[in-house]
Amino acid sequence: MKYKLSRKLTFLLSALFVVISTSIYAQDPSFSIYIDNPQGIGKKVFEFDVMVKASGPSSSFELRTFQGGIWVSPSYVNGGAISLQNVTAESEMTSPKHNGSIQWNATDNFINLTANIGVKTLSSCISTNVTTAPIRVARVRITNTADFGCTTPDLKFNYVQNGSPLRFRTSVSWRASGCNLNYDMYYPNRPYTGSALFNGELYSTLDGDGKSPVNPDVNDPGCQAVLNLKAYLEGFYIGGGMMASTLYDLEQGAVLAGPYDPTATDSILVELYDLGNTSVPFAST
Question: How far apart are CA 144 and CA 138, in angstroms?
Answer without folding.
Answer: 19
